[in-house]
Specification:
The complex is a heterodimer of chains A (about 260) and B (about 130). Helix content of chain A is about 45%, strand content about 10%. Chain A is α+β, with helices and mostly antiparallel strands. In chain A, strand 2 and strand 3 form a beta hairpin. The longest helix of chain A is centred in the middle third of the chain and has 21 residues. Chain B has a single domain, classed as Dynein light chain 2a, cytoplasmic (Beta-Lactamase), CATH 3.30.450.30. Chain B starts with a helix and ends with a helix. Chain B is about 30% helix and about 25% strand. By secondary structure, chain B is α+β, with helices and mostly antiparallel strands. The chains are: A alpha+beta (about 260), B alpha+beta (about 130).
């Protein structure tokens, strides 16, 4: 590689930078404004965002894997980047279940990294996630899916304020018989929680929670507690993405507090 | 212990199988696919069948009487069957102990496929994918 600006850094958006890294067959971690995408040989192997519950949350808070079992697997496999393999080999979760949950978390986090497609922050060449490769996805599939997901939300109810603002139930609106997921989501709308808070409380993927919330908004049952800030990129005050090490520390603290 | 691809390949060994995929019924994403896609466009097929599956999964009218679903976080419907002049489409909801909203879609040739057998096998595959 020639000295100077690497190819990824010349791109104005995270998705374009990912495309350039995929073309190089790069391995490493690309940080965007709202999260990190991990690449292995040009394919996406993982993604994380403060807006989306991570794999540990999805697996342990649902009861699918006992928290002790999860942390044992992290202790045993973390340094060798094979936590995922360890979870399967030790029988804590099946290969199929881990793949389904991992892809759910990957596309969920990638949506938040790519839906507001701003300039990438940095790329750490060679960085490998401690989970190890569970399943990899081509970059163009992840980018296309994120765009499609954004369009789907717009079709349901074109109010992006629902995605980031604290949410409130509409007074006097009868909820009737709601489908299970939608009813569970509505039950946690309390005027304080945001979509990401509700997703974390339910151990549900955030995008899938957004779909339910936009449908509830379309039905006139839920609205943003305050008007969405009149900015191009509405950023929730508390959940600004920071460096991965800080995010990890915060998760550890949350986990310790949950004990 | 099967992963997604192994489960789909196993489904493809059923008589008359033309294509198999694992699809998220809320987002419309195909998490995996083998064989051909009906209509020739995997992503379009996944999005369309997901919309169909979502309506059925959310249907109050089709739910078992008296709330006898096995668990309160599972879709009330087990599977869906669509028949055409030349095909069977079998969609089997997969229940997982964590948040997921996926179904297996098996496309069978109508001349060679055995719908009753495929329905039993696909249910077993859906369980094995998650439970091992």
């Amino acid at each position: 590689m020639t000295a100077g600006t690497p190819a990824w850094a010349t791109h104005a958006t995270t998705s374009a930078a990912l495309g350039a890294l995929a073309a190089e067959g790069a391995t490493g971690a690309l940080s965007g404004e709202r999260g990190i995408v991990y690449l292995s040989e040009g394919r996406v192997v993982h993604a994380e965002s403060a807006f989306a519950p991570d794999l540990a949350t999805l697996l342990t808070r649902s009861g699918a894997v006992a928290p002790d079992g999860w942390w044992e697997a992290v202790d045993e496999g973390g340094r060798h980047h094979r936590v995922g393999r360890g979870l399967v080999d030790s029988g804590r979760v099946t290969a199929g279940a881990l793949e389904v949950c991992h892809l759910g978390a990957l596309f969920d986090a990638a949506y938040f990294v790519l839906a507001h497609d701003t300039r990438p922050r940095r790329f750490r060449p060679g960085a490998v996630h401690w989970l190890g490769t569970v399943r990899s996805v081509p970059v163009d599939v992840v980018v296309r899916e994120s765009r499609r997901r954004r369009a789907l939300l717009e079709r349901i109810w074109p109010d992006p304020g629902i995605d980031t603002a604290p949410l409130v139930r509409v007074a006097d609106a009868g909820s009737g018989d709601l489908p299970l997921r939608r009813g569970r989501t509505l039950a946690l709308v309390d005027g304080v929680r945001t979509a990401a808070d509700i997703a974390a409380a339910l151990a549900c993927r955030t995008y899938h929670t957004l779909v339910e919330l936009r449908r509830l908004a379309a039905d006139g049952l839920v609205t943003a507690a305050q008007p969405a800030p009149a900015r191009d990129r509405p950023g929730p005050g508390a959940a600004v993405w920071d460096d991965p090490d800080t995010a990890l520390l915060r998760r550890l603290r949350d986990a310790l507090e949950a004990l | 212990m099967p992963g997604i691809d192994e489960s789909l390949l196993e489904a493809m060994r059923l008589p008359g199988a033309r294509g198999a995929s694992l699809v998220d019924w809320i987002s419309g994403l195909a998490l995996g696919a083998v064989g051909d896609a009906p209509g020739g466009d995997l992503e379009a097929t996944a999005a369309e069948t997901a919309e169909l599956a979502r309506h059925v999964a959310e249907s109050g009218s089709l739910a078992p009487a008296g709330g006898t679903a096995p668990r309160d976080d599972e879709p009330p419907v087990e599977d869906m069957i669509v028949t055409t002049a030349d095909s069977y489409h079998l969609l089997r909801f997969v229940s997982t102990p964590f948040d997921s909203t996926v179904f297996l879609h098996l496309w069978l040739d109508r001349n060679d496929g055995n719908l009753a057998l495929a329905r039993i096998r696909l249910a077993e595959m859906a369980d094995r994918l998650v439970l091992g």
